[in-house]
Design goal:
Order of helices and strands: EEEEHHEEH
Helix content: 40-55%
Radius of gyration: 16 Å
Structural class: alpha+beta
Distance between the termini: 45 Å
Low-confidence stretches: none
Mean pLDDT: 88
Length: 119
């Protein structure tokens, strides 16, 4: 498992909820998603792609469709990780990514403001 190969103290917790967490590694220039018993590494572009795939899942349609199980197989081109998620897990992952990207945008805004004050 990749989690054993990295020093957890070097990771910055970007955002976490009751179901998982997203960490940032400045040294390796990547993100780690700890969700559903899986600890997966993503670069910035892959994390954005995964977020888009998760956001496009229609939870209401998934729950109302009686012909299909309430699970969704989540992956995208160029990704080595696959998630099999229930409707509740999809909601939790959506929440996790919403918080993560809010924190990343907030960090960017704060950096911009500080940069403008200095220069």
């Amino acid at each position: 498992m990749e989690k054993a190969c990295i020093d957890i103290n070097e990771l910055i917790n970007v955002f976490s909820n009751n179901e998982g967490a997203v960490y940032q590694s400045d040294r390796l220039n990547c993100f780690y998603v700890d969700f559903g018993g899986k600890f997966a590494r993503y670069n910035c572009l892959s994390l954005q792609k995964l977020r888009k795939v998760i956001e496009e899942i229609d939870i209401e349609a998934l729950l109302l469709n009686t012909q299909k199980a309430d699970f969704e197989l989540v992956t995208f081109n160029g990704c080595e990780h696959i998630y099999l998620l229930s409707a509740l897990e999809i909601i939790a992952l959506k929440d996790l990514f919403e918080g993560t990207f809010t924190m990343l945008n907030l960090n960017h805004l704060i950096s911009d403001c500080l940069y403008r004050l200095v220069y």
